[in-house]
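hiii, so i know i said id send this last week but things got crazy w the move. better late than never?? heres the sequnce for the chain we talked about at the cafe, plus the structure i predicted for it. fair warning i was half asleep when i ran it
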Amino acid sequence: MLLRTSVVIGLAALYDSVDGSALPFALDADGCVVDYQPGVDYYPPVRRAMMEGAGISHPTSIKADDFSITYHKTYKVVRNLRNSLSYILRHCGTPEELPDLPADAALSPVFVVPAKKWSSGLTTTYTFLEELDLISHAVVIDQTYMTSPCGKKLVACGVIAAPPTSPAANWSAAVVASGSEVHFTDGGWGTNKAAHPIDVAFDASNDPGLLNRAEWLKFAAAFFNKEPEANHVFDEIRSRFEVIEEMVTAELQAGVASPRVAYLPWGGLSISIAAYKQETVSKAGGTNVDASKWCPLSGSAYLCANTTMLKEVLKTVDVVIDESSTWGLDLTDPLAYTIDHFKAIFDLNDGALTNAGETSADYPFLASNRVFRHDKRISSAFGGSDWAESSLPHADIALMDFALVLVPQLKNGSFFHPGEGSVDMANRETRWLRNIAVGELPAIVDPAECDDTDKLQSSQFAVCPDEPAPPPVPLPLYNFCDDRNDFCITTSNRANIVTLAGMQATIAQLQAENAQIDELLAEKEQCAIDKSLNAAEVLQRLKVEKTIKLVFTN
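okay and structure toks below
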């Protein structure tokens, strides 16, 4: 097997900005331009949000359908496409003039970036910003339903304010008084908006796919000039996501059955087939139920005329995702919802089955005990769901949850990722899905997770006043781009950023190896080259991931 290292193409200038020293301009400690010079591009490709896949630097995203980012020399325009909103982000240290401003952005609010403080009344933003190491920059949040361990910790010690959200005028005044420079809300509902020009509609939850939603990391990052960090985080998520897809596909090809899945939402007489739910089921190894024989399709749901019709559908279902609301059930605490509540809501308790001349064996999901809710991690308040707050940027973990319950045979193997090695799946637990049919209970998220480095949402930067100072802020991360700026890759680990001289030495070695390979290819058509051709070592030293496509030739 022959490794064509030459595919890592003309890398002569690929690493010019590994430590930022080769940028054609200087930035101060706040990330502002020190000595503005007309004509300089302050948003070169090394600082932009990148397209996924081959790593071609491009002004727009590729997975997300509902946002875009376009770059200009001193500013960028971030667009929320679903709600036809746009935001102008001007680089601090550059003139207020905005040359060549697109017509559609002419009346858009202007933000000076990188922002130093942010606020939000929308819990779905918290984890996105945590993934970018920005939780400590929050100044006002709504903790009513929040599950973020670090958010809870910082609110408890007074680092982040959590004023009452009602009345709205007081909430708005608190946000403005905090000095927040960007306030994340949503476009449809304006959840806890500040009613101020700093409001930004963050609508990741409306984008139609799992990776679409995760890529909103880049939308959030743009307000802090952290797009390269977002590129890196997103590419890691995408890479793991693809490995999970491959694992599921292998099991299905080996003959594992694909279970029929139905989402039962709040309505009680409907079956949801929202795009992201269908994608989740299919990529996790399931089959979306077809209810058209009994219930007509209306938009993104089958609407059943009555319970009888819904139950006919359910007799064809192997796995149920129960999304029914707990409101109105008179539960004493948020942990109390059980399989008995589910059966009562859908007329499936023992009495109802007996009256209908049925048993649980008539319903495959009851017979096999496969009824799940995504409320395994919750806040102490009713309605506080970590799934709603944290699953969006963690598309890989969300897919893994569903894959584990739809294709349990995955636990017989290992999860292997090129950048992370092999992990035994035998004891892998779901993060958000709990099986109420076997009595699994939810758990309230513990703020102590913030300080546990083994936990997903821990942070070294979430520090209270009485704690040791946080570690130094990492150097800015940059994309690696070739001299034409049309081919870029992400770094795979900011702790392993190497020097320009070291990367040039690696390039020279790659070129020498390519020359040797070319000589061997000239001697004979089939070459048997030992796999110890430093493939692993080269990848380790390059610190790149699947964004570089390495070509193998027999």
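btw The two ends are 5 Å apart (CA to CA). thought thatd interest u
miss u guys!!
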